């Protein structure tokens, strides 16, 4: 984790602590932060599929459409586009 990310996380925790020090104290007792973070990543990933039509959702579910490959393709397109823009 980069220093700026660590500081941003601490700032969030400071806000929690200012509101309720007991709650912050309870958070330090949580042992499964990695599992919680993975669960949140999965929850966020599922939000994108809510925007998909049924045919696309079915294609992903049956393996005939590779969502990870589509994400890679779009990232490459975006990177290529940003390199062509003046001032970048």
Number of strands: 0
% residues in beta strands: under 5%
Major sheet description:
none
Instruction: Please state the structural category.
Output: mainly alpha
The 3D shape can be described as flat
Report Rg.
20 Å
Order of helices and strands: HHHHH
- Unreliable spans are none
Distance between the termini: 26 Å
Number of DSSP helical runs: 5
Would you tell me the overall average pLDDT? 93
Secondary structure: helix percent:
over 70%
Write up what this structure looks like.
The protein has helices spanning 3-19, 21-27, 33-49, 54-61, 67-84. By secondary structure, it is an all-alpha fold. Helix 1 (3-19) packs across helix 2. The chain is flat and about 50 Å long. The model has no long low-confidence stretch (mean pLDDT 93).
In short:
By secondary structure, the protein is mainly α. Helices cover 76% and strands 0% of the residues.
Task: Label this structure with key terms.
single chain; 88 residues; mainly alpha; flat
Q: What are the SSEs and their pairings?
A:
Elements: H1 3-19, H2 21-27, H3 33-49, H4 54-61, H5 67-84
